[in-house]
């Protein structure tokens, strides 16, 4: 008998966890598993890359409600009231992702129905909402939840989420640093925690990189590139913009392309306009194939403040791109400073100086590329650890 597995994730819009899940689902042995996938938001870019064996469940009733216009929403009074309550709560300043998730589950979560089917295994592929859903709304023999970042929980959020992690059978964490941090938050659940790295398929990345990009890249000057959700707290796009401004003030010619969408976009556009960076820092938006753009860049830049693993760095390494990154904890898992990339500081002008030095020092530049070309690519063998998790 095949085991019935339910995976759930917020969406399959562009992001590291999303790409990792799609890779995992493409590696699964479907002679052993029947797989359902529950999304909270549909229409994400990566849905097109799911294997045909994966059954995407119909949208949740609340997801359907959100797709209606405001007048039709009024006919679903319980959802409408919950949405208003949630909207009022998240208007507070300086809310964390965990704050928003707690407010969401306390208001909207109450209205979300339980899953219709029973499963052998349920996987919440992400902290917060996917985890809450698996624990509260799904009947399954085993429940596994994922931590895809260096998760910071304290105070009320630590107390609130304890209930969910206490009920999980296993907690899969995508890097040693993230595991270390999570174990410090909930040491009592240390026995449940297992290391399962984010997965990426090097052949798929290399093949996709050879396809034509949707938009033209101007290579008349050095091309810098960053890929990731446009946000400030994790991805550090504020640092990226200030770095670009430092480079401009130094008189360096460059084009810095940012691939992705997110809540920080309007502020980024405002900064770009105010500092005259229109010709220097270009927002490409989301794309199903970032690799066709990445292949064309000279230097890949990662200005993150924190990462669970740093999947985009692994992808850049797959394409032998020299990388400059900030010293977030997990960068040291992948970058050997001066050998296969450069690790700088969080100071924008320091990053700008490092970029300038690498562009001028051709010996170092090609030494890094040569070292990258000799490295092992991909980690599809990590699927074995996933199978071990299911069997534990």
Structure description:
The protein is α/β, with parallel strands linked by helices. Helix content is 40%, strand content 16%. It has helices at residues 16-27, 61-66, 70-73, 77-89, 97-107, 129-137, 155-167, 176-185, 202-209, 237-249, 265-274, 291-294, 311-318, 348-360, 362-373, 383-391, and strands at 3-9, 33-39, 55-56, 118-124, 139-147, 170-173, 193-195, 223-227, 255-259, 281-285, 299-302, 323-325, 342-343. The strands form two sheets. A seven-stranded parallel sheet has the order 3-2-1-4-5-6-7, with helices on both faces. Strands 10-9-8-11-12-13 form a six-stranded parallel sheet, with helices on both faces. The radius of gyration is 22 Å and the shape is globular. 40% of the residues are buried. The mean pLDDT is 93.
The whole-number mean of residue pLDDT values reads 93
The total of helices stands at: 16
Helical amount: 25-40%
Share of residues in strands: 15-25%
What is the strand tally?
13
List the uncertain runs.
Answer: none
Instruction: Report the C-alpha radius of gyration, rounded.
Output: 22 Å
Kindly, what is the distance between the CA atoms of the first and last residues, rounded to a whole number of angstroms?
A: 18 Å
Structural class of the helices, strands and pairings? alpha/beta
Identify the strand order in the major beta sheet. 3-2-1-4-5-6-7
Question: How can the largest sheet be summarized?
Answer: 7 strands, parallel
Could you give the order of the helices and strands?
EHEEHHHHEHEHEHEHEHEHEHEHEEHHH
Assembly state (oligomeric): single chain
Give the overall shape: globular
């Amino acid at each position: 008998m095949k085991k019935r597995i339910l995976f759930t994730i917020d969406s399959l819009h562009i992001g590291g966890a999303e790409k990792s899940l799609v890779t995992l689902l493409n590696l699964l042995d479907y002679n052993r598993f029947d797989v359902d996938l529950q999304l909270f938001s549909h229409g994400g870019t990566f849905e097109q890359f799911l294997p045909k064996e994966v059954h995407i469940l119909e949208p949740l009733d609340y997801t359907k409600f959100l797709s209606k216009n405001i007048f039709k929403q009024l006919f679903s009074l319980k959802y409408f009231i919950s949405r208003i309550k949630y909207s009022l709560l998240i208007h507070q300043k300086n809310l964390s992702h965990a704050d928003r998730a707690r407010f969401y589950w306390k208001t909207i979560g109450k209205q979300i129905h339980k899953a219709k089917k029973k499963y052998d295994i349920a996987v919440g592929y992400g902290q917060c909402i996917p985890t809450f859903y698996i624990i509260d709304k799904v009947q399954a023999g085993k429940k596994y939840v994922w931590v895809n970042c260096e998760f910071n929980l304290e105070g009320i959020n630590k107390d609130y989420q304890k209930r969910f992690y206490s009920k999980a059978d296993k907690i899969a964490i995508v890097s040693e640093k993230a595991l270390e941090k999570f174990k410090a938050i909930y040491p009592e659940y240390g026995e449940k925690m297992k290391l399962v790295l984010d997965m990426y398929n090097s052949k798929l990345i290399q093949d996709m990189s050879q396809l034509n990009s949707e938009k033209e890249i101007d290579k008349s000057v050095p091309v810098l590139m960053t890929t990731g959700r446009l946000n400030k707290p994790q991805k550090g796009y504020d640092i990226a913009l200030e770095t670009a401004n430092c480079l401009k003030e130094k008189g360096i010619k460059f084009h810095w392309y940012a691939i992705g969408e997110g809540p920080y976009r309007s502020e980024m556009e405002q900064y770009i306009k105010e500092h005259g960076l229109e010709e220097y820092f270009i927002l490409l938006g989301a794309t199903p194939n970032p690799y066709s753009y990445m292949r064309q860049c000279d230097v890949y830049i990662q200005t993150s403040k924190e990462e669970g693993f740093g999947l985009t760095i692994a992808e850049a390494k797959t394409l032998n791109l020299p990388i400059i990154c900030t010293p977030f904890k997990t960068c040291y898992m992948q970058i050997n400073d001066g050998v296969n990339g450069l690790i700088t500081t969080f100071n924008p002008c320091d990053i700008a100086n490092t970029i300038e030095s690498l562009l001028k020092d051709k010996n170092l530049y090609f030494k890094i590329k040569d070292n990258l070309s000799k490295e092992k690519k991909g980690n599809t063998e990590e699927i074995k650890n996933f199978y071990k998790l299911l069997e534990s």
